[in-house]
## 1
Amino acid sequence: METIVCIVQTEGDGSLAKAALEAVACAKELAAGLTAQFAVGLLGETVQPGADALANCGASAFFAVSGAAFAQARYATDAAAVTALAKAAGATIVLGAATSRLARVMPGAATRLGGVSDASVTAVAAAGGKPVVTRWYYRQRMFAELTRDARPWVVTIAPGCFAAYAGAGGSAAVTGVTPELAAGGARTTVTRIISPSGEQQTIRPDAKLLFVAGAGWTKKQSDGAAHAGEAEKLILNFLNKSKASLGTSKSLIDLSGEGQQVMSFLTHMHQVGQTGATPRHPKGLATCCHGEEPHVVGWRFIGERRAVNLDANCGWAQGKADVLYVADAFKVMAKVIELMG
Ligand SMILES: Cc1cc2nc3c(=O)[nH]c(=O)nc-3n(C[C@H](O)[C@H](O)[C@H](O)COP(=O)(O)OP(=O)(O)OC[C@H]3O[C@@H](n4cnc5c(N)ncnc54)[C@H](O)[C@@H]3O)c2cc1C
């Protein structure tokens, strides 16, 4: 019989972010499939609000590592906390969201527990009473369903793959757990977090739309001149109005390395594709992007794909988009912005 623990990190106010609630939904699903119980292991400075939000989620128990030392991500304290929570729950399967905080410590916790680990799992199932996880390989070109006999099995869940748990809250009884910390284990201190403002931050994982700007925005247009300045204004204007997440192609990113005029707000973090990101959004709109396979492979998890391209034979037309508008993206986006008011 498997015993599952779902590790959830709490936010500064003790609440749970979407990725944590998705991991809880995953734990529920796996527990139901295996006819097993699952516990919740909370990690953060304040944990009671998060535990109360999950009071009716069906968890058999709530364990928590809390206090000022666990307010911020720090490898030594977080790895010790996950290890202690898994031990307290007697877990054979340890689940947690693949957030930047948990993804970097879960494999370490697996080693400390003498177990095994798999990262960025996108689905779970029970087959013949055994847990099975799905992982994508070779930049989302193929997936495998795999199971393991070794325990504990520590698994991180890719965000955006499960509908976030949204049950009614209540009052949860939480058992405190004290992790074993090596001497000096808490010596690393986060002195400050530097992050761009909401307007400057153009990578928005929870946005309904992914807007991709390709290299065509910087190319010579029908008048024989490039209009990168105008392109920049159109793209930023649309992003501000739509709150879409911004992605780009490798070509546009590489142009900066070649000393050409590029858009100041694009970084390597925006690159979508084989050597870039694989974001998850319900819809995607590619503009001035050719839709070549190494780029489109990053669209694997985009629900509905549309593209605007002057070329009726571009990659998007080869079965890669649901809708291709053969049109000038400068004109299309100016009209869209006008219609948005
Ligand atoms: C090993 C490897 C890994 C790679 N990894 C990635 C990756 O991770 N991500 C990635 O993106 N690429 C990747 N590539 C590169 C990829 O193959 C393409 O070269 C790249 O995606 C092309 O970028 P693009 O479509 O923006 O530019 P281009 O190919 O230059 O296309 C520009 C498009 O803009 C259109 N256009 C121009 N003006 C307008 C206008 N006014 N209105 C509408 N359309 C217009 C043109 O018709 C053209 O189709 C990789 C390649 C290799 C070999």
Note: The radius of gyration is 23 Å.
## 2
Amino acid sequence: MSNSHITATGGCLCKAVRYQVQGPLRDVIACHCTQCRRSSGHFVAATATRPEHLTITEDRGLSWYQPPDLYKRGFCKLCGSSLFFVSETGAEDKISIAAGSLDSAAGIKLAAHIFIEEAGDYYQVSGDAAQVIGGGHAVKMPDHN
Ligand SMILES: [Zn+2]
Ligand SMILES: [Zn+2]
């Protein structure tokens, strides 16, 4: 495999999970829903890529939690880092990746806040990014050829 097409690398805090992306990354969406806030400790900021563009290069720590009717969450069972989010239906043809797990910014930016009605009352959602009630954001997956 050539390294020339790797667009991003990342992983968990303890390096027991590492991944690389060989395709475009979507801009970042911050999800303020109750599940994301509880599992992450604050709120979740995630980019996304097509599943076929994500390669897990180290999975020693990778574990998955599947709440009923909610996104499946990939995390490191050794250090607790949140890493991946997958629709339980598999219908979306994308995998979301915790933006904080990227090794570098990879040219993406925060584009929207979703589920702002569930945001904690200890902070304000602010800044230039769109703010959406519910999950119906307008941030598109980048075209991939
Ligand atoms: Zn880890
Ligand atoms: Zn959420």
Note: The pocket of zinc ion (ligand 2) is lined by residues 31, 33, 35-36, 44, 115 (CB under 6 Å).
## 3
Amino acid sequence: MDQVLFDYTRQDAAGESCTAHAWAKVPAPLTPDQRVALKARAAALLKAHNAVLVAHYYVDGDLQDLAWETGGIVSDSLEMARFGRDHAAQTLVVAGVRFMGESAKILSPEKRVLMPDLDATCSLDLGCPADEFAAFCDAHPDRQVVVYANTSAAVKARADWMVTSSCALDIVADLHAKGEKILWAPDRHLGRYIQEQTGADMLMWNGACIVHDEFKGLELDLLREQHPDAMILVHPESPKSVVEKAHVVGSTSALIKAVVEGTAKEYIVATDNGILHRMRQLAPGKTLIEAPTAGNAASCKSCAHCPWMAMNALQGIIDCLETGQGEIEVAEPVRGQAAGCIERMLDFVAAHKLKAAGMKSGIGAA
Ligand code: SF4
């Protein structure tokens, strides 16, 4: 496939593009007093509802802090799924994008899963419609179907394996060693990276993350000249021209660990800039530089931030707990079918003790 299957800027029936719709729903910045008041209100509601907040590294820093302060977690999508499944709370509030809430519900059907805004989606999920994907699978029945976490429940229901960027390399390498051929979806950059690393026979879907797809290899070269000693950290959803310049290629957890454990003073970071909040907390003495997404003439030279992640807000946490709106439902039989590929991944990770494994660098991710 050599076409992008979904144009995220395409207008919908209301004349808005997906990304414009998302940015329009991103709340205005809060005053310091508003932040304190809303955080206190959200914390009280989490406690009153016996709920736990499960947040992704890309969401607003206040939500990340709220999660830690109330006994929840901030992590990558693999650990989010695992934490939500294993936690005793009967209500999970997932701050992230929709597929993360769906994964939580798939693994914990008896729990109530709430999200601040159900419109928070992902270009990878949007770009892989379940019916077209099923036809793709039907055309290649000899292949193991491996899908990235960033897909709908219906797509996962069609898959043999779900993977995250933390464990994708290990799982595909294992399948390849067993002589399996792979049908991979939806991220073409991550798929290419894994194919190059493993040599596996992989047939690719042609999706992309709108945030990572924007990083520019040429601009990174120019930035590198200004910071010759900086360590370059790259998420593998980025283009090849960026990945090939990296000192570390890995999941969000792996990139954070690289900053914490690295001996360099400066780090150029090619992933959503929401991750810098956690990096600054864990490595306060290090200098973090956002990788470029545009040239010098652009109004925003480094502006890697996901509009759907940005929709998550303190007020949304409060609203979903107060009203019960924003509840994730995944109907049977899709839920049960999708659970199989997620549990297979979790079992593989547990069996191979991948918690401390990484990608290019060997630096760990969970
Ligand atoms: S950052 Fe990219 S992969 Fe992550 S949710 Fe946003 S669009 Fe999807």
Note: Residues 212-305 form a domain with the Rossmann fold fold (CATH 3.40.50.10800).
## 4
Amino acid sequence: MPTLSHNDAPNDIDSLSQSQFIKEIAEVINNSTPPKGIGINGYWGTGKTSALLQLHRELTGILPTDNKRPKNLQVTTVWFEAWRYQNEPVPIISLLHEIRTRIRLWNRFLGKSKKLMGVVLQGVFTAFDETIKVASAGLLQNTISGLNKAGEQWERNHYETPLQGQHISDLLEEAIEKALGSNSRNNRKLVIFIDDLDRCTPEVALKLLEGIKIYLNLKNCVVVFGMDQRQIEQALVKALDLKGDNNGHQAREYLEKICQDIYHLPLPDKDAKKAYLLKLLEGLKIGNDDNEHRQHLATVLSNYDCLPANPRKIKALANRLAVMLRANILTGDLTLIESTGVRREYALLISMTIIYTFHRQLNEQLEKDSKYINTVIMFAQDPSKVDKDLFEPMGGIKPSLAADKALPTNPSDSNIFRLHQLFRDLESITESEITIFLGK
Ligand SMILES: Nc1ncnc2c1ncn2[C@@H]1O[C@H](COP(=O)(O)OP(=O)(O)OP(=O)(O)O)[C@@H](O)[C@H]1O
Ligand SMILES: [Mg+2]
């Protein structure tokens, strides 16, 4: 049933040709020997949470919110949204609590013969409680090194009484081993998904990474981070108070200690972006001629690479395109752009919708003064030729072409002007051609 507007929920079903990418990471996890840290890196809104959900399903056959027995017991998962624990003084405690809570749940899903006996389960919980106590003692010292000191103190105390003596991470590792139902024949793993680390304050992000390094660097644990690597590195520079020109490099080295493999979310190319937009339009009410509309839009997008490589932004654009199409403003003009055979009216529809969605100030200017379109055309032809005063409404917009040279731009940002070629091919644009799109 088509809707008027898509929401922005992460999507566990891939429409961006990323399934091979997800399969490869799943294979690495299945065939790696932990401890292991894996990062899925992408800019905001490029699909990190969606990728983590797809990976979760690839590994277990279920989603994190499905409270049911996973299809594959080789991998057991915990889902941890870091920013939710933003105000916790020691975020690793929240993560340990979360794992502890999940253990009770997993145990319910195991068959009768696989279920942990009450006494074993109690032992597992005790190990977690001990670790949480140690981590909380670190809290009293209120520094990150406090976490380490608390661990060392615990070990000293326990090594003085050799019968109970056991390294804290051995204790936790063994508890997890039992909880997973591992034995000498299988090699079961706990996979911890940590999303939104980059949404935490620098201090919290650092504390969580430190906590993971100290307590969860275990032979049966894989930690998968969804992150914007740039943001995390900037946060680490701040939180670790790194100085000097190569502070970014130091931050990266710090991150690499915890996260050995970092996979960059593949950037959708022109065809993948087009297919995604058209698929989104299929789910939207766009009027009676929906097939025809989609076909003409497809021709525009096959000829002009004007979308950002960012599904969130493409979604916003699809929602807006649907508003425009439902408003029934197209006149049915059959004029074509000569060089590409694209219907002019649809080229203008996409251009004006992109301006409305991504370049707000420019849109406001055009609504105020539609003649300003001539400046936009000039900018499209050669940004350096546009008078700086006239340039003001386009102040935040970065050109992606200078004369005929492609400029380096962030593919996922929406303040990049990707309409150079399209505007060049449209040549002159009359005011009446664009006023139908303005103020809608
Ligand atoms: N592979 C995909 N297939 C279809 N839609 C996707 C895909 N990846 C992302 N999306 C869509 O793009 C939008 C952003 O996705 P998501 O929330 O996963 O990104 P994110 O990188 O986690 O964002 P944030 O930086 O805000 O955490 C959502 O609307 C989602 O439905
Ligand atoms: Mg996300």
Note: The two ends are 25 Å apart (CA to CA).
